[in-house]
Amino acid sequence: MRTPAETAEELAGEVRAALRPGAVGGVSADVACTGTVAGVEGETRQENLFRLGAHAAADFVSVEMTTSTDVWMPYDLKGRPQPAVHQANAPRLAAALRDLEKALESETEPDDPTHFGKPTETGVENRREPDGTPSDVWSRFEIPSRTEVFRHAPAFRPGYRRTADGDVQYVPIRSEHGVLGYLWASDADSAASFEPRVAADEEGRRVGLAWLDHLAAAYDRGLSPSRALVELTGPATPPATLALTSLRELARED
């Protein structure tokens, strides 16, 4: 097994080999770190638990660590208390930050708050409402971000519109876990898309992206939105009709 020094020297060699002629303006690198987190069901392995990045310029060097989980906070991103999860994981993050300070011989400088949390010298705190209650930043920021792709078609790619003004035909898309979302179409607006259920979380989004690909293929074949809906879902599931605004409200129900 290689030592850390050998690994560092190998990386430095790759950087030197990739250098172009001329003065070096700056060098940046980052690495995705896998780790384990403690949950209500025990330890779980999580990909991209941290991302560690470094930037070096002629007179400045910085190291940045970001995280993609809320287990370090007293409340989850929906504002729900998670005392056991926080107690099990927050000390780990604090210890990691201390180790970085020691290795880099530098103090931790918390970055600016994001939509999801407020970095501190020892971890991350929840965003809070004016009355002090923890914010449901998941519904406020993450869900709109995740659904944007289903509501706005790419600007430079032909296809069905992904929004409609009135009623649409729709079919529920199910798995063994229940309804993941709704495939819908409107000939009047030349529109068709997928509306993922909020409760379906990442599975609903992943399945929805696959349905967008199917709709794109149907558009390329010249199918009308309603014809694409029937062909993709089959005659055994006749579409229902609902205003798109109401369908989106239905998708948000827990």
Descriptive keywords:
single chain; 254 residues; alpha+beta; 2 domains; 6 helices; globular
How would you portray this structure in words?
It is built from 6 helices and 9 strands, in the order αβββαββαβββααβα. It has 254 residues and is an alpha+beta fold. The chain has 2 domains: 24-135, no CATH class; 138-252, no CATH class. The strands form 3 sheets. The protein has a 4-stranded antiparallel sheet. A 3-stranded antiparallel sheet has the order 1-2-3. Strands 4-5 form a two-stranded antiparallel sheet. Helix 3 packs parallel to helix 4 (201-220) and helix 4 crosses helix 5 (225-233). The longest helix has 22 residues, at 83-104. It is globular. Residues 104-139 are annotated as: Disordered.
Count of helical regions: 6
Count the domains: 2
Largest sheet: 4 strands, antiparallel
Secondary-structure element series = HEEEHEEHEEEHHEH
Radius of gyration: 24 Å
CA distance, first residue to last residue: 50 Å
Per DSSP E runs of 2 or more residues, the count of β-strands stands at: 9
- Tell me the overall shape: globular
- Identify low-pLDDT runs: none
Largest beta sheet: strand ordering: 8-7-6-9
SS-based structural class?
Answer: alpha+beta
Percent of residues in helices comes to: 25-40%
Nearest-integer average pLDDT: 90
Instruction: Report the sheet-strand fraction.
Output: 25-35%
What's this model, at a glance?
By secondary structure, this protein is an alpha+beta fold. It has helices spanning 4-18, 83-104, 137-151, 201-220, 225-233, 244-252, and strands at 26-39, 42-57, 61-67, 118-119, 124-125, 167-175, 178-186, 191-196, 240-243.
